[in-house]
Amino acid sequence: MAGQVQDFIHGLRAKDVPETAFHATRRCLLDTIAVMLAGTHTETGRLLRDHVAAVYPAGASGARLPLDGRRVAAPVAAMAGAGATDSLDGHDGHRLCKGHVGAATAPGLLAFTDTDGTCDLGELILRLLVGYEIATRAGIALHRISPQYHTSGAWNALGVAALGARTLGLDGEHSASALGAAEFYAPRGLMMRVIDQPSMLKDGSQMGAFAGVAATLMARDGFRAGSSELIESNDVSDLWADLGTCWRVEEQYFKPYPVCRWAQPALEAAAKLQGEVLADSIARIRIRTFTEGVRLAGHAPANGDEAQYAIAFPVAALLRYGRLGADEIAGSALTDRRTLDLAARVELIPDDRFNARFPAERWCEMEIATTDGQVLNSGETTTRGDPETALSDAEIVEKTRTLIAPLLDSERTDRLVTATLHGELDTGIGRLLDDVLNPPDTSVRARPAATG
């Protein structure tokens, strides 16, 4: 299996990729960049950028920090970018991985490319595609092999190492060491610990990105590592047999709202019912969903991290404001008394109908009782953004503009959207990297400080 993986990493060409997979990768690139840039101005995003700039500075050979411009060592540039992405829970993901590929692979791609990998747009997209295909399979493999539910950093590090090996032009032996070391050093944090105790740790992608970049650079310099169990084990060989023919990048989901995927069905149900009821007239909200979703709870989050790993508060905020973006789950919004009072009326109930469908599908049913005795029911509701309920390109562009409007002017945003979604493959990427990595425009109003 190792030989097939190596051939894919280094031999993939644009002519080998269906247009649907190529375009899906473009969408993933734009969506992840938008979330990452918005995340640079969360408390976590700012903290990580300032920390790595102070502790791990680099000269002209370093990689720029996203929307900052300061150069640091490539592994920590990737870490800070992944931390920013993870800090605003609006990034893409894969249902069977129960986690996120792009949160580490896109920041890793930027770190490698800004230091060692000048290329055209077509090659940039191919590198990211390699990362998605390797990381997604590694994630599914880890869930099959391990009885524990690990964070995304435990497996998306392999996607970072794979695209890094391609970027640096490593041979087979050095590429195998990069993958082996990335798997060995990747953080196998327990996901439910973060669900129960939300914090800046989030989904572990910060250290997944760091491990993937560091392992690849070490392998380039001669560091030898054992093979990757997630690739070589006979128990997962079927997952790798269709590499290059089944395109897992097309299976990624996109989030309409910047909160945990497990909360998205409840938000869709709330959005469905909000036109029929005034928030001040709600006496009770009863949400039936899968058990893991119930554990999100989150009636009175203390910070943005807790608000993103919650159901009750985001549902109340959406019903209260008629929308749910970054500003509704951060800062002063978290202490809004009317939202907190409404969140306190949310009851979460595990339901075997939806347990049976999880994790391949995420569903809920919402019932709202009003003070005048009316009862509204959403019916069984899933979320938009899955492959079967995909967001359109226009919706992803709208999401992008909403997230980064406080940070970038319209001209810079237009260039970013055009380059990622529609740019010619032989176009240079210097301007794209500058738009993503250089500091924000001082003339644009910055979003108020957000926590989490």
Rg: 21 Å
**Integer count of domains:** 2
Count, helices:
21
What is the global morphology? Answer: globular
What would you say the CATH architecture of the largest domain is? Orthogonal Bundle
The first-level CATH class of the largest domain is given as: Mainly Alpha
Query: What's the helical proportion of residues?
Result: 40-55%
| Percent in strands | 5-15%
Which fold does the CATH topology of the largest domain refer to? Answer: 2-methylcitrate dehydratase PrpD
CATH superfamily of the largest domain: 2-methylcitrate dehydratase PrpD
Mean pLDDT: 94
Q: What summary fits the major beta sheet?
A: 4 strands, mixed
Order of helices and strands: HHHEEHHHHHHHHHHEHHHHEHEEHHH
Strand order of the largest sheet: 4-3-5-6
Uncertain runs: 443-452
The count of DSSP E runs of length 2 or more, i.e. the number of strands, is 6
Distance between the termini: 40 Å
**Global structural class:** mainly alpha
